[in-house]
Design brief:
Strand content of chain A: over 45%
Radius of gyration of chain B: 13 Å
Structural class of chain A: mainly beta
Oligomer: heterodimer
Order of helices and strands of chain B: EEEEEEEEEEE
Order of helices and strands of chain A: EEEEEEEEEEEE
Distance between the termini of chain A: 41 Å
Strand content of chain B: over 45%
Helix content of chain A: under 10%
Number of strands of chain A: 12
Shape of chain A: globular
Largest interface: A-B, 23 and 28 residues
Number of helices of chain A: 0
Distance between the termini of chain B: 37 Å
Chain lengths: 111, 114
């Protein structure tokens, strides 16, 4: 079946540092890939998506590129802010329309 | 901006009781979903619903669970005879299309079974 593996957290960074959160996946066919973010006390918000190989999703300074050859969809941001502190979930949709999530990675950004 | 809403935000119930979790999806969306997240674990798919019937369900979604769209706006998840292990955050999501289209999530209902 489908699965998503994310790097373990928490990730602690100083403001303006570079962020990478690794995500790899296992799926049959050509899944669509997503990053969702969960801010404290809130629900899951779609951050970005990519639907085919070599697509780059981007939003709010975050980027992720769909790499089929390495089955990866790593999340990056050049300069994090305290307001980016949240839990980030990598997810995929395969042949069925259900999302398969990774375990989530908590990001803590400090001044 | 339209959003998915869920009520209540927190529900406490005794083991063996029935609970109904309510969701109002985004108004022009046609596909509806329930997911749950047990504390410290992954978000897991429970069920998808389209055209007034279940499209797909996971192995978690056994006979104690049911879903319903009782009117044009609400989408409910009923858990009969709750168990301690049903304690989790339950998320509703909706999507204008099926397949690989993105899903929009509500804020969740935290269910605590005592």
């Amino acid at each position: 079946g489908n699965s998503v593996t994310q790097m373990e957290g928490p990730v602690t960074l100083s403001e303006e540092a570079f962020l990478t959160i690794n995500c790899t996946y296992t799926a049959t066919g050509y899944p669509s890939l997503f990053w969702y973010v969960q801010y404290p006390g809130e629900g899951l918000q779609l951050l970005l998506k990519a639907t085919k190989a070599d697509d780059k999703g981007s939003n709010k300074g975050f980027e992720a590129t769909y790499r089929k050859e390495t089955t990866s969809f790593h999340l990056e941001k050049g300069s994090v802010q305290v307001s980016d502190s949240a839990v980030y979930f990598c997810a995929l949709i395969g042949t069925a329309s259900k999302l398969t999530f990774g375990t989530g990675t908590r990001l803590q950004v400090t001044l | 901006e339209p959003e998915v809403t869920q009520t209540p935000s927190h529900q406490v119930t005794q083991m063996g009781q029935e609970v109904i979790l309510r969701c109002v999806p985004i108004s022009n969306h046609l596909y509806f979903y329930w997911y749950r997240q047990i504390l410290g674990q992954k978000v897991e798919f429970l069920v998808s619903f389209y055209n007034n019937e279940i499209s797909e369900k996971s192995e978690i979604f056994d006979d104690q669970f049911s879903v319903e769209r009782p009117d044009g706006s609400n989408f409910t998840l009923k858990i009969r005879s709750t168990k301690l292990e049903d304690s989790a955050m339950y998320f509703c999501a909706s999507s204008p299309q099926g397949g690989s289209y993105e899903q929009y999530f509500g804020p969740g209902t935290r269910l605590t079974v005592t």
